[in-house]
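Entry, Tuesday afternoon. Goal for today is a structural model of the target with nicotinamide-adenine-dinucleotide bound, before we commit to ordering more compound. Inputs were pasted exactly as handed over by J.K., no edits. I checked the ligand SMILES twice against the vendor sheet because last time a stereocentre got dropped in transcription.
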Amino acid sequence: MVAITEAVSLEKEGDIGMLWIDNPPVNALGFPVRKGMADGIAMAMKDDGIKAIVVICKGGTFCAGADIREFGKPPKEPHLPDVLTVFDECTKPIIAAVHGTAFGGGLETALSSHFRVAVATAQFGLPEVKLGLLPGAGGTQRLPRLIGPEKALPMVATGNPIGAAQALKEGVIDEIVEGDLAQGAVAFARKVLAEKRPLRQVSRMTDKLDKNPQIFADYRKQLAKTARGFEAPEACVKAVEAAANKPFAEGLKYERELFSQLMMGSQSAAQRYYFFAERQVAKIPDIPKDTPLIDIKKVGIIGAGTMGGGITMNFVNAGIPVTLVEAKQEFLDRGIGVIKKNYDITASKGKMTQEAVAKRMGLIKGTTKMEDLADVDLVIEAVYENMDLKKEIFGKLDAICKPGAILATNTSYLNVDQIAAMTQRPEFVLGLHFFSPANVMRLLEVVRGAKTALPVLATAMAIAKKIKKIAVMVGVCFGFAGNRMFAQRKREVDKLVLEGAPITQLDKVIYDFGFPMGPVALLDLIGIDLGWSKETSKGETMQQILCEAGRFGIKNNKGYYNYAEGSRAPKPAPEVDEMIKALAKKKGYTPRAISDEEIIQRCIYPIINEGAKILEEKIAVRPSDLDVIWVNGYGWPVYRGGPMFYADLVGLDKVLAVMKQFQAKHGDDFKPAPLLEKLVKEGKNFASLNV
Ligand SMILES: NC(=O)c1ccc[n+]([C@@H]2O[C@H](COP(=O)([O-])OP(=O)(O)OC[C@H]3O[C@@H](n4cnc5c(N)ncnc54)[C@H](O)[C@@H]3O)[C@@H](O)[C@H]2O)c1
């Protein structure tokens, strides 16, 4: 065996050269691997005893893509496209032997080989688009040549991987190896030699290249729905289109150009930033990695309403039994009925078997007795948002639950420390703030009380992962991080409506910014009556006026907009325009035209400002955590990174200057956060605070 670099060696297995890659943990295509591959192929070429070359990896996977740590650094030669040209032009057959994942540059390496074999569990994908990029080492040119543009498009433009069986069916690989991969690959190489098979240079294949423009038009239509606002998927389509229509070398050049454009653009910067932000979020500086965890075998949930039901589903989906407590049997039956209906809908779509439904339902034990929570390891309270009720429940829980059980509240706004104070175990109390619908939304705010113990917090972060949530640690304050920031936008939207911005303009501007829906349409969806009470309503706000007029939103087909029965498509409601005009007049507003730019600034900059206050108060660990909250909990478009990333992109000096202008015109809702002022003064940005 000859070591070529610290990561690559060449070994002879009779007349087959085995090019072994060993670059833990995932055999990423960093410099030692790239150089080792290029030099290894050159060495094998010179060795007359080697007739064919197998490229194979040690450890748990084939090359799982580019070394993301090299992003943003000056590239070091040889570059991957050049190494892959060496593969392509090698006159001895190269066989890529794949196990684990061949993603990104990994798959591009396999595509540049002349043949591909894999174990049955291998996966293949080009996930670059998920980082706002496209495969930049020939993937967009070789894959369509190998399997045709129609099959290549979804792989390139969605980044979703396929398994070995599908890869074999589509022609991405030539054979699935049963048993030992190295032996299987050697046997395959010998077969290629014995049968004198011609070299299959993918770059020269043309028979699958369907040029029909309809394929691309149809795919673009699909993308308009699934990838609205994203630049990279369209660039992927353009690159595959070029594969169909241009010679290989030109296509490769075009792919490079598109790659460079994306790499320099703000969307990819945002998506790459976000990729790290989501990995960083689990790291809490004062919680050591080896903090002992509490074993959560059984969970109790109180309240089988909107949130309790969804939270229950999360746990039983993860195979954890739940004791679900309700105040009355009829509420319990209704709550469990809703859960069953949700699963039945999933099953009717073929996404779940009836056995799986039965198994999950079997993990739920409904009860009206809180005493049944004596043996659970974690309780999550999800009753009405009422402090007295929550206090009473925590007092009872403290007496019922075994020592060491964690007591959590799903409150949206209330003070977790006051709730904890009702128990003799405040160190075991915290907030677990799920988002609605709790079985769908990935965000979970883990609310750290003043006395919450480290093992309790570490356990909460770990259990969140188990139920497939993205947990973000926040501190106690009104609305925690997410809702507290969101309240800023809500307030400005209410004001902008009265100042004269048509609700359709507000909705369009925010939708076009990249949110899944506009802020007014969102109010109709969640219910205008949320937090409204008939007894205290005085016709002084649009919420009160609409609710007094029986306009609660989509739920009763009329809110800010009108809705046809059973439809969620908003239609204009002239009667609401009149209500808005009347209230604006009463409050002394003179209607004015408001620019789209002002709407963005009024709705977004106060969110950023509140984020700065939250950081200053140490309610959140780092700015990027706030971005994770916004992307997962509030539909912030990931290609804009999150509000704090966006602020850096706009420039904190500009955000501050605009906030000051608004403060002069509209008052102290726009008072700049001291941290924002400080960062601008010091010439720093939020990214500098990302520990
Ligand atoms: N709905 C949301 O969007 C949302 C999002 C995040 C957090 N939250 C919070 O979650 C909590 C629950 O909200 P929801 O929307 O699910 O309310 P909900 O009204 O849908 O459900 C509350 C349930 O609690 C039950 N309940 C009341 N008192 C009880 C008692 N003593 N014992 C057992 N059950 C009792 C009620 O019967 C009801 O079924 C609130 O604190 C709310 O602020 C709500």
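Residues 253 and 523 are 48 Å apart (CA to CA).
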